[in-house]
Design brief:
Number of helices: 8
Structural class: mainly alpha
Strand content: under 5%
Radius of gyration: 61 Å
Order of helices and strands: HHHHHHHH
Pfam families: DUF6197 (PF19698)
InterPro entries: DUF6197
Number of strands: 0
Shape: rod-shaped
């Protein structure tokens, strides 16, 4: 039996150079990397949790923004609506004015009626005193107005009645002078034209019965009208 050979086996001729060995190692690593990449691309790798971004509604709620439908644009009223609104406002004001003045006149009429009833039942009219002798002559318009003022000073002045326990009003004083024959109705009418001019053209009884009227204002109006009548007669 031949003796066993103790010689070292010879290396393959392929690996005789270092460059060849390096190339073989690179090929092995490249193959391993390719296998790993292919596993990743084929979704063979374990699943990882995906990053989920919050939705738009959640972001709006977190920011505190109130979302919803926009309010409608203000409507511009048409010309017809504006005209109707203006007419309604005017009608409401007119109704309030009529109600206020109707109430005022109703209360005034009730007050005049109660005062007349009081004068008739409780305070009967005193007898008309006889006029003084010097007033029995026919007076002119200016003299008639001065005599009316003097007669009111003697008898006293009243409102809302021709004659009462307190005295006489402007027309009541004129009537008593006319009944005494101090002047004619034509003279009284001419005198009252000047009275109307002084008091602003309103009714003499209404002017006499105003709430804030005073007796001194009555005498001043009569004397001013007398001066006006005397100047017109010149």
């Amino acid at each position: 039996m031949p003796a066993a050979s103790t010689a070292t086996p010879a290396a393959p001729r392929t690996f005789w150079s270092e460059s060849v060995i390096a190339a073989a190692v690179d090929a092995v690593f490249a193959e391993a990397i390719a296998q790993e990449l292919s596993a990743v691309l084929e979704d063979d790798a374990p699943a990882r949790p995906a990053i989920v971004l919050p939705g738009t509604d959640l972001l709006i709620a977190q920011a505190g923004i109130i979302a919803g439908p926009c309010p409608p644009d203000p409507r511009t009223p048409s010309r017809t609506a504006s005209a109707l609104r203006t007419a309604g406002s005017f009608a409401a004001r007119a109704a309030w004015w009529l109600l206020k003045h109707a109430t005022f006149f109703a209360v005034s009429a009730l007050g005049h009626g109660l005062r007349l009833l009081w004068d008739i039942t409780v305070n009967p009219q005193p007898p008309t005193p006889a006029p003084r002798p010097e007033t029995l002559r026919a007076l002119k318009a200016a003299d008639f107005l001065e005599a009316t003022s003097e007669h009111i000073r003697e008898r006293g002045w009243t409102q809302h009645a021709l004659v009462s326990a307190r005295g006489v009003c402007m027309i009541g004083a004129e009537r008593e002078l006319l009944r005494a024959g101090a002047a004619s109705r034509t003279t009284a009418a001419a005198a009252n034209v000047h009275v109307h001019a002084v008091i602003g053209g309103c009714s003499i009884p209404w002017w006499n019965d105003r709430l804030r009227r005073t007796e001194e204002q009555v005498h001043q109006a009569l004397l001013t009208a007398a001066e006006r009548a005397r100047a017109a007669a010149r």
